[in-house]
Amino acid sequence: MRHRRAASPPVGRGREVQRVLDLAGDPLVGAVLITGPIGIGKSRVAEGAMAGLIERGWRGTGLSATDSAGRIPYASLSELIPDALDALDTGGDGAAELAVLRAVEEALELGDGAPHAIVIDDVAAFDRASSDLLVHLAANRRVFVIASQPLGAGLSEALIRLTPARVVELPIEPLDVTATAELAADVLGGPVGPGLVRELSARTLGNPLFITELLATAASDGRLDDHDGTFQLSGDLELGASLGRLILNRLGAIDADERVVLELLAVAGPLGVDDLADRVGFGVLEEMERRHLIVTWSDRRRLRVRAGHPIHAEAIVADMTPLARRRRHGELLAMLEAHGARRADDHVLTALALLGAGRSVETGALLRAVEQALRSDRVRDAGHLATAAFGADNTESTRAVLAEALIRLGRFVEADALLADPLPDDADEWTRMWRAIRRSSNQLWGFRDAEAAVRLDVACLEGLRDVDAIERVLAHEAWIAYCRGDATRAVEDTQGITDRSHPDVRFAVAAVRAPALVLAGRIADGAQLAERAWEGEWGADTPNGSHGQHLIALGFANLFLGDIAAARLIATEAIASCRHRREVTALLFFLDLAGWTELFAGDAAAALPCFAEAFETAAELSIASSMQSSLAGMAIAEAQLGDGEAAQATWRRASDVPPAPGPRAGAELAQASAWALAASGRTDEAARVLRRSAAELGARGLRPLELLTLLDLARVDRVGQRDAEQAATAAAACQGSLMPAIGTLVGAVVDKDPGRLEDAATRLAELGCALWAAEAAAMAADAAARAGDQRRAAALHRESARWRPAAQVSPTPALTRAPVVDPLTRREREIASLAAGGIKNAEIAERLHVSVRTVETHLQRVYGKLGIRSRAELRRALGR
Fold it and tell me: Considering the entire predicted model, what is its pTM?
């Protein structure tokens, strides 16, 4: 059966297709086994690779098998050689097998010299005789086999079968958020909003089949809204009947105990292993885990279990009768009552179980459960509970909670409609104010429409008379300005709001004014305000939610002030607290702080895992701005560790993330691009990117970011006089120790002044910026060598090596400028070692049978080469 040419490469699978094409060109590889869960896109990758091979002049054939055919020898080849299978009835000495082999070779036209690829879907279902024959051909490179196999019991069998063909396994990972958006746009025929992408990512975990099916059902049910040319979600993404049946069929036969586990997980979400083991036993859970029906993981306190995939749980719920669902909720409630509400999520589970069991729940308990569900990122549970609360008690507080849940679910259209409902005639000004702010925020973050957000705030101001309410709206306007990168405007808009204002106003003002002050260069003022908001008025024991905004601002303020130890302490303690409390969103931002702190400290190897975890968390939450920031940090760290190829790939992923509001986004992306280019040897291009970014940041008044960008320009050795003047102006506008030190360094690089460079290096080392200090010392050594001062150059070279972080195995561009110090000769090293050991010149001369003058001459040369003046320095230089 001839394989058809694919019309286009599979969306979001370009890297995997290219990997198969590369393997096909490797003469040492005869087969590739594409693995992954059901619906992940294994067949699409195989088809895309086949299309690419056909374009390169290959021939292609596609084969598939069924469970029944898998029990009959050569039945899997029946479509390819139907007539030749009669040969199996003759002979018993291998003649039949040889006849089949010849028939296959003839059918595939293997004698004409053209390379041939065979795609095999679900290779473990192939009969053994057919797969052995194809493996024989692949082992001799007569064909190249592209096989696929779902995760499960057949995977090990498939690998064993293909081993003689020198198989390479290619696991297919889920689509990331960018690829999910690309696939959704391809399916719907137009761009999709961030809320829809977020919900698709959370529900499907990047499974292309599930994405396609959910979108098809949503489109047919009218749950998608065209908002200014972008598809937005206007209802829940329902599981279609056809997808539900497919999933249940693929899950296979499930016994009674396994059904109990899946139904409990379906109605409750993740549960503790011990709770389920008490119900069905550990053996059942182990078998279910082996078959990928469930997933176990540790939340650092206990072992937990969830369904193998969120969509699997939805299919199970849809298949349950109403009475079955009520029974499982009753069991869940009994389980919770047996051990008590000991964990934060137990309040969520209790509310869900009570509702599911048909019992009433007071509104206050529902609202508390919603708050906890949102904090734990159980967003769908929050939506269900908030809907119940609003249905039972239509008040402004329940409306606000439901709107928040809808926004977190990506259902911005519904949230906007809910918030646009007419207010009661007797609504007070604070109620009107909160409605406007929530709706404005939805416009900014949901629809990415900052102008509409500002219009809503302005319209609200026209009807307000209460001073505190007016100031709260002004604070929100300042927040919009800050998110658009206008820190100066944000500072100005919050200038008149004082400590006499309402506590809620002061809280909101601090959340925007503190980071705006930091980015405007008034770093110490921002740190002071953030610290007051955090420690003085709202307590210092809860680094999460809105309170965490102040602590994050304080962390970055300390970082920009040059107090790296304080920034690291904030990040470390907050991360531990967030993990303990399972504050997922707050954890993301503190991981970001930790990553940038380590980059400032010069430890790219320590920064990389922080950014990687931050990206994974941001991807789970579909927070585009944080995804881009963490990917940018990863690219910078990879580049500074010398992996230019990885840095380029990561930067491309960062640039593909849909843009989102945020003042640092452009600067971080430019830094990532520049470092990826520099690590690949394209320094001039890197300089152009940095210089353009510095100009934009300067025009927006973001002085610390402007200075950090100019620092990078100096670090890639492309800084000029204009850049130095710009750095001096920016540094003069910044408070603290670090930014002025950076300004001094940039100017000293241009002047090639060894003294100023050495002073900058010393200052940066004192502040804990080890890599920057090492680079400054290396540039100082280069300047001293060019000035003819070899002794000083050697000393600075040693200082650079001393400050250089141990993990910095690959030199950055600035480190490559360090002069090459003349190596000691064998005799010089011998004499230097004896002298460093405390032996006097006369004794050295006697041991080596040379004159004392010869010893003195050699030591003078050693001192000059090492840039030292005494034996004490000699001992340090030789590591004694």
Answer: 0.72
